Amino acid sequence: MYNQFPLAKLKEVETPFYYYNMQLLEDTLGVIKTEADKYGFHIHYAVKANANKRILEKINSFGIGADCVSGNEVSASLNAGFPADKVVFAGVGKADKEIITGLENNIGCFNVESIPELEIINELAEKHGKVANVALRINPNVKANTHHYITTGLEENKFGIYIWDLEKVMDKVDELKNVSFEGIHFHIGSQINDLDSFKQLCTRVNELQEWFAERRAFPRIINVGGGLGIDYEKPDENPMPNFEKFFKIFSDFLELKEGQEVHFELGRSVVCQCGTLMSKVLYVKEGVNTHFAIVDAGMSDLIRPALYQAYHKIENLTSSLEEDKYDVVGPICESSDCFGKAVTLPKTGRGDLIAIRSAGAYGEIMANQYNLRALPKAVYSDEI
Ligand SMILES: *Cc1c(COP(=O)(O)O)cnc(C)c1O
């Protein structure tokens, strides 16, 4: 049902553009809400996956919070209607100005990644006459089975506080007057489909809970981050990940103490499948061993294949001729500007509409103007 694109209408829109299936987004949010509510889990949407205003507003309408990694994301979330107490601010390098944005708006929590950052938040909070709620982002040293650029929970990554530094950090928390310790935060990586990684995270959290109990410190919030993967190979068969199974793991394996809340920060799994990058074929050029289908979208519109060697399913929506193989490339002056090599497509020609699927997360938001190209537009299923 979700793979039915309104072709007659889409053909009229100037390419390239992102097409968002708002029904799929709504259904995904509905399932997330239902499954999380079973256990009283709290969800924050990781705004960095897609900060498109209509998408933020839709997500907010489901009572989900916002997880931000910059001052501008904090502002965008507030502008889209997220209540300030449901906005959290994470990130390894928060600038003073960004911290002040958070403080002035009384956001729910800062996820803190180092002692120097804690001291600056305390100092700025004091200046502004505030007490900042803080959670400590702990590097759990759990290996997520995913691309090495998107694992974040290992000791070699720049993220989080090392477990062996916790003692020092908690001493500092106790000493500082303008920060209030609210909880602990973890995020082990992205596009994780091996759910065992999340079980391991639960085990590590349980061990840490004992450490905090011995210290008589109480993390009220246990934030286990995001990272749930989606099916890039089969977006039609699996339009959403198995949220039921995902949340159940945390319910089964986390050992919670009285009064604790579990928070999640889901990004990709919320928005990825609802987005498609649409482009048209400009030329088909004969290469030595291949045909090049040169499309009018490039790595400036969707950088994931060039940046992470990411796979996106590519479809020709307007041809049903006999199949052939094509290297689908963009117009940008970089060899990495390639969406897929030896892609099987029906015989493709100038003007065919090409869909690059599963592009709702880390797509439009990562678009840039390299080669002085225009930023891609967005088209929504309920407005077309
Ligand atoms: C990126 C990020 C997320 C979201 O990750 P997804 O894989 O998109 O779910 C959540 N929390 C933090 C701290 C992040 O950096």
Describe the protein's architecture and organization.
With 384 residues, the protein is α/β, with parallel strands linked by helices. It has 2 domains: 250 residues, Alanine racemase (TIM Barrel, Alpha-Beta Barrel); 108 residues, Beta Barrel (Lyase, Ornithine Decarboxylase, Chain A, domain 1), CATH 2.40.37.10. Helix content is 28%, strand content 23%. The protein contains 11 helices and 17 strands. Strands 1, 11, 12, 13, 14, 15, 16 and 17 form an 8-stranded mixed beta sheet that branches. An 8-stranded parallel β-barrel has the order 2-3-4-5-6-8-9-10, surrounded by 4 helices. Strand 4, helix 5 and strand 5 form a beta-alpha-beta unit. Helix 4 packs parallel to helix 5, helix 5 crosses helix 6 and helix 8 packs parallel to helix 9. The longest helix has 19 residues. The relative contact order is 0.16. The model has no long low-confidence stretch (mean pLDDT 95).
